[in-house]
Design a protein that fits this description.
heterodimer, A: 258 residues, 4-stranded antiparallel sheet, 11 helices, B: 283 residues, mainly alpha, MetI-like fold, 2 domains, 77% helix, 1% strand
Chain lengths: 258, 283
């Protein structure tokens, strides 16, 4: 709509507080930004609020009843809380901890599920293009092109997770949120997903929650370290891992807790 | 070691007892039904005659088969929208809220009401209402029976469907929400398709209950041993005719009643098998 040059930061989180119950904050006063075409890893021990922060970025956290949110998150300068949730989630896609292809749909239907769920009618040729592109982008096309009309649940765990990535990028979103996407996968499938994320950042901006520090170190450009709902430290991954400023970050990185 | 063997033997004996009991029931049903089938052959199933006059005795089960199938299916048709929407409300829309748990308890309470009480209620509350509408002279008939039958099976179908619906994994719903689906789209494109076979199963189980239900139906269907001529005409079901007539029956008539019982058993078995087949196909 506007022709102002796109700023480097896709997401701006401003003084964000999130509480599941009144007064009990899962995310406390977090301000941060996410750079375009980068991978940002959010780390921290269990219960530190990293998943909540991630889910806030496409307002998935609002699925919980009685959630309280203060502060703001801007996507390309526009508050996500002033957008329609549906529009936001098409721009900010999500991949979950466990592969969750729709069991009643074929591989093909899973990739275009975002369109069919939203009653967006496409021509067969358009759909075919979207499916092929999305599957090629997640390096799954050659493996499944002969079985597009089989159920997605027949695939291996790693293939299912790549199918879920394909489903999320079929909309061509700006940002892809990944909530511990490899925690249910074996090492080989994990490394394939990690390679894939490295490829995907050329087109999209990725935000990744992980409790696997070496994964964060391997693939992320920027890192955030959260502890007890607070954003303790954030910055370039190299800097954060080699010269952490906060003693809590250092303690976590050296395995003293978490 | 020996403790293990004793447990194993005990479990084996219990299972065997159940098996023998089942076989015994089927055998005595078959045995009791033989005279009737020997007399009337397959005509017993296709004939609507029910004439106990000595000398010109003639028995056929068609009226009762028709009565049972019509009332049960009509009850199922009335039950489906009620049970389906209630289970969605309980298990999806208002899941986890007070409203939902109160409604859940109420549904369970309804399931616990004895059949005779439903019959009573139908007789004294529902029947006069039907008379008042002018659709039926005395209020007895297929429709009245089906309506009470539907109300009786709604709690079963509801609580089973609700159970199935609440078992749909949260991660599937989240996946759909993350793709920008609205709540309605999530429910109709993810929740219902995932729960479909279970929902169908719960309605088939409900149908099974309706087929065998006796007391409330007997009180409302009018107990006319004919094929019902219309929705508001009286008829009789297989279970009702047995309940009404077994006490004074002997000889060929008793055998005919047992044969009706055997047919009811077979129909119920077929319905259940059909249900399982459907579930297999969708699963």
């Amino acid at each position: 709509m506007n022709n102002t040059p796109q700023s480097e930061n896709v997401l701006e989180i401003r003084d964000l507080f999130i509480a599941y119950e009144p007064g009990r904050y899962a995310v406390k006063d977090v301000s941060a930004h996410v750079r375009r075409n980068s991978i940002t890893a959010i780390m921290g021990p269990s219960g530190c609020g990293k998943s909540t922060l991630l889910r806030a970025m496409n307002r998935m956290h609002e699925l919980y009843p009685n959630i309280e949110t203060k502060g703001d998150i801007l996507l390309d300068g526009q508050s996500i809380f002033s957008m329609s949730v549906i529009e936001l989630r098409r721009k900010v896609g999500m991949v979950f901890q466990r592969p969750n292809p729709f069991p009643n749909m074929t591989i093909y239907e899973n990739v275009v599920a975002g369109f069919s769920l939203n009653d967006i009618r496409l021509k067969k040729s358009q759909r075919d293009d979207i499916v092929e592109n999305a599957l090629r982008n997640v390096a799954l096309w050659d493996e499944v092109k002969e079985s597009l009309y089989r159920k997605g649940t027949f695939l291996s765990g790693g293939q299912q997770q790549r199918l879920c990535v394909a489903r999320a990028i079929a909309f061509n979103p700006e940002v892809l949120l990944l909530d511990e996407p490899t925690s249910a996968l074996d090492p080989i499938a994990t490394s394939k997903i990690e390679d894939l994320l490295g490829e995907l950042k050329k087109k999209y901006t990725l935000v990744l929650v992980t409790h696997n520090m070496s994964q964060a170190a391997r693939i992320s450009d920027d890192s955030m370290f959260m502890y007890l709902g607070e954003l303790v430290e954030s910055g370039h991954t190299n800097t954060l891992f080699t010269t952490p400023k906060d003693p809590r970050t250092e303690a976590y990185l050296t395995g003293k807790f978490g | 070691m020996s403790g293990d063997r004793i447990t194993k033997a005990l479990l084996f004996i219990s299972s065997l007892t159940i098996l023998l009991l089942g076989a015994g029931i089927v055998l005595s049903l078959f045995g009791g039904a033989i005279p009737a089938f020997r007399e009337f052959g397959l005509k017993f199933i296709v004939s609507p005659a029910w004439n106990p006059t000595t000398g010109s005795e003639e028995y056929g089960a068609l009226s009762f088969i028709a009565g049972t199938v019509i009332t049960s299916i009509l009850a199922l048709i009335i039950c489906i929208p009620m049970a389906f929407s209630t289970s969605l409300f309980i298990a999806e829309y208002y899941n986890g809220t007070r409203t939902s748990s109160i409604l859940r308890s109420l549904v369970d309470l309804l399931a616990g009401i004895p059949s005779i009480v439903y019959g009573f209620w139908g007789f004294y509350a529902l029947r006069p209402l039907l008379v008042a509408t002018g659709l039926s002279d005395q209020g007895f008939g297929v429709f009245t029976a089906s309506l009470v039958l539907a109300i009786m099976i709604v709690p079963y179908a509801t609580s089973l469907s609700a159970e199935i619906i609440s078992m749909v994994p949260a991660e599937l719903k989240e996946a759909a929400y993350s793709l920008g689906a609205t709540r309605r789209e999530v429910i109709f494109s993810v929740v219902i398709p995932s729960a479909r076979s279970g929902i169908i199963a719960s309605f088939i189980l409900a149908l099974g209950r309706a087929l065998g239900e006796t007391m409330a139906v007997t009180m409302l269907i009018g107990n006319a041993n004919v094929i019902p001529k219309g929705l508001f005409a009286p008829g009789n079901t297989m279970a009702s005719v047995i309940a009404n007539q077994f006490g004074e029956a002997s000889g060929l008539k008793l055998s005919a009643l047992i044969a009706v019982g055997l047919l009811l058993f077979l129909i119920t078995a077929i319905v259940n098998a059909l249900g399982k087949l459907i579930i297999k196909r969708f699963a």
